[in-house]
Design brief:
Layout: E1 3-7, E2 10-14, H1 17-46, H2 53-56, E3 59-61, H3 62-69, E4 97-101, E5 107-111, H4 117-123, H5 126-134, E6 139-141, H6 142-151, H7 172-184, E7 188-189, E8 197-198, H8 202-214, H9 223-226, H10 260-271
Antiparallel strand pairs: 1-2, 3-6, 4-5, 7-8
Helix pairs in contact: 3-5, 7-10, 8-10
C-alpha cells in the first residue's frame, strides 16, 4: 500500500517506513565505523616506528606482525583507539535484513549492507596472506618472526649504538651542552642518545679531553675513558697515546692537528655558559 503525505496542495509518495528506517540505521552504523577508523588512522600517522616489542616480549600477535610488515608501528595497537581490535578469525558483522513492498506491491529484500570494509582490505593484502601461510596463528613466537623476517630481508638487525644514559660521567646536562657545541662545529653526528660519531683525527679527540680537564669543565681521573661513554672510539691504540699529529709542514716538522681550532671554539663557548 502506498504511503502518502500532503504538503500544501501536493500529494507526495514515499517508500516503505521499514526500508527508510533500515537505511537510517545503515547510515548510523557506517558513520560510527568510519569515525572510529579516522581515529585509528590519526594514531597510525602520529606514532613513530618502534620495534621494541621484538626485544621485550616472547610472543606477538599476527596483527602486530602485519603492521611491522606494512611499515606501521606495532605499538599503536596498544592505544585506546585500537581497543579490542583484531583481524585473526574476524567474523563479518550482523546485517539486519527486511522484506518490503514497493509502490506496486512487489516485495523486495534488502539489508543494511554493513561489512568490515578496511579489515577485509588488510586481510586481503599479500603481507597478511604470507603471514597466515607461515604462522597461521593468533600469536607468534617473537624469535620465530624475527628470524623469518630477517632472513627474508623484511627487517634488519638494529646495530645502532646507544649510550647508557644511566652511566653518564659528565652528567646529562653537561653532556647535552658538549654535544650541541661539538655538533655546531661539525665534530660529531648521530642523535644525542646514541654514541656520537667523531669526525676528526683521534689526536683531536685527545686534545678535546685534555682541554676539558685543563679548563675545569670535567673533573675525573679517568678522563680518557669517560669521553668514550659519549663518543664511539674505534681505534686500536689507547686514546691516551693518541698524541701524534697527522699534519706536517714542508720541512717534516710537526704542526697542530687541523681541527684543533674547532676544539678551542668549543671550549671557549662552554666556558661562557
Amino acid at each position: 500500500m502506498r504511503n502518502q503525505v500532503i504538503k500544501g496542495d501536493k500529494v507526495c509518495a514515499f517508500k516503505s517506513y521499514k526500508q527508510e528506517m533500515l537505511y537510517k540505521d545503515s547510515y548510523e552504523v557506517w558513520n560510527r565505523y568510519f569515525k572510529r577508523w579516522q581515529l585509528k588512522y590519526s594514531l597510525i600517522e602520529k606514532t613513530p616506528i618502534d620495534l621494541s616489542i621484538l626485544k621485550t616480549i616472547d610472543t606477538i600477535t599476527i596483527e602486530e606482525a602485519l603492521f611491522i610488515r606494512l611499515g606501521i608501528s606495532p605499538t599503536v595497537l596498544s592505544k585506546s583507539g585500537f581497543h579490542d581490535w583484531f583481524l585473526f578469525n574476524l567474523e563479518p558483522p550482523t546485517n539486519k535484513e527486511i522484506i518490503y513492498q514497493d509502490y506496486n506491491g512487489k516485495e523486495w529484500k534488502t539489508n543494511t549492507g554493513i561489512s568490515n570494509l578496511i579489515e577485509d582490505k588488510l586481510t586481503d593484502t599479500d603481507e597478511y596472506k604470507i603471514l597466515m601461510r607461515m604462522f597461521d596463528s593468533k600469536h607468534i613466537k617473537t624469535d620465530d618472526f624475527v628470524n623469518w623476517a630477517i632472513n627474508n630481508e623484511y627487517i634488519e638487525e638494529d646495530k645502532t649504538l646507544y649510550r647508557d644514559i644511566k652511566k653518564s660521567p659528565y652528567g646529562e646536562e653537561f653532556a647535552d651542552l658538549l654535544y650541541k657545541e661539538l655538533s655546531t662545529v661539525g665534530l660529531v653526528s648521530r642523535p644525542f642518545d646514541h654514541l656520537w660519531e667523531w669526525h676528526a683525527h683521534w689526536n683531536t679527540l685527545h686534545y678535546l679531553v685534555k682541554q676539558l680537564q685543563f679548563n675545569g669543565l670535567t673533573k675525573s681521573k679517568s678522563y680518557f675513558k669517560d669521553i668514550q661513554a659519549y663518543i664511539h672510539y674505534t681505534a686500536s691504540t689507547d686514546l691516551r697515546k693518541q698524541t701524534q699529529p697527522e699534519a706536517y709542514n714542508d720541512k717534516g716538522g710537526k704542526n697542530t692537528s687541523p681541527d684543533d681550532h674547532k676544539i678551542d671554539t668549543v671550549i671557549a663557548s662552554l666556558l661562557n655558559k
